[in-house]
Amino acid sequence: MIVSLEELEKALLPNYAILVSGGFDPLHYGHVRYIKVAAEWAWDYDRPVVVAVAPDSYIAWKHPVLQDIEARMEMIDALRWVDFVVPQGEETAASVIRACKPYIFLKGDDWKQRGLP
């Protein structure tokens, strides 16, 4: 379900969800594997999976935007493991982390090399 940050905050208890974030432009098998790992954690702890999607401005900083945020969120929402999709609104997931207060926040392996913002 695609929701706003405010709707997400109302829908979840603190310390409850498994949160992942990314640009997902273009969505590829590495992203699917990453979200599936989050789902496996969610199954183990009986928690929902929340995916935060980075804004177009963040994608444009890295490369030309191939799919706008609405299209990327729709594709993420179609994955069977995802309970909530939320626009990130900024480069970092900080606002989503504050709203969601996740039990676990996962990032992909690509962040090992450059570090988290």
Please characterize this protein's 3D structure.
The protein contains 6 helices and 4 strands; from the N terminus they run αβαβααβαβα. A 4-stranded parallel β-sheet has the order 3-2-1-4, with helices on both faces. It is globular, with a radius of gyration of 13 Å. It is 44% helix and 15% strand. It is α/β, with parallel strands linked by helices. The protein starts with a helix and ends with a helix. The protein has helices at 5-11, 29-45, 56-62, 69-77, 94-100, 111-114; strands at residues 18-22, 49-53, 84-87, 104-106. The model has no long low-confidence stretch (mean pLDDT 92).
SSE arrangement:
Layout: H1 5-11, E1 18-22, H2 29-45, E2 49-53, H3 56-62, H4 69-77, E3 84-87, H5 94-100, E4 104-106, H6 111-114
Parallel strand pairs: 1-2, 1-4, 2-3
Helix pairs in contact: 1-5
What summary fits the major beta sheet? 4 strands, parallel
Helix and strand run: HEHEHHEHEH
Shape designation? globular
Number of helices: 6
Helical content stands at 40-55%
- Roughly what is the average pLDDT, rounded to an integer? 92
Strand arrangement within the widest β-sheet reads 3-2-1-4
* Class per helix and strand makeup: alpha/beta
- Rg of Cα set: 13 Å
Short description:
The chain has helices spanning 5-11, 29-45, 56-62, 69-77, 94-100, 111-114, and strands at 18-22, 49-53, 84-87, 104-106. It has 117 residues and is of the alpha/beta class.
